[in-house]
Amino acid sequence: MISLTGAGKEAQIRYLDGDYQVLAGGTFVKCAVTGRAIALEDLKYWSVKRQEAYVDAAASLEAEKRSETV
Questions:
Q1: CA angle (63 as vertex; 23, 20 as ends), nearest 5
Q2: Domain coordinates of the chain in residue numbers?
Q3: Is 20 within 8 Å of 46 (Cβ atoms)?
Q4: Quick count: other Cβ atoms within 10 Å of Cβ 67?
């Protein structure tokens, strides 16, 4: 799901199981672990429970490890 409005802005996303819903238009989201921008067309990793995006599998694993220690 790609938003064409809000070019150059961070999108507001609701992360769902296997999909996501764009709540406010934008072209990217930020990785919750690294802070790096992730283009919506490249977004593959997120947590429904934490409502966070991750740049890659390693960042997703790091977030999971962090949540276990809390």
A1: 25
A2: 12-68
A3: yes
A4: 12
The enclosing H or E element of 59 equals helix 57-68
- pLDDT tens, position by position, 1-17: 444 556 789 999 999 99
Question: What's the rounded Cα separation, in Å, for the pair 63 and 27?
Answer: 23
Q: Which of 42, 66, 52, 61 is nearest to 15 (CA)?
A: 52
CA 32/CA 53 separation, integer angstroms? 6
- List the chain pLDDT tens, one digit each, 70 residues: 444 556 789 999 999 999 999 999 999 999 999 999 999 999 999 999 999 999 999 999 999 999 987 5
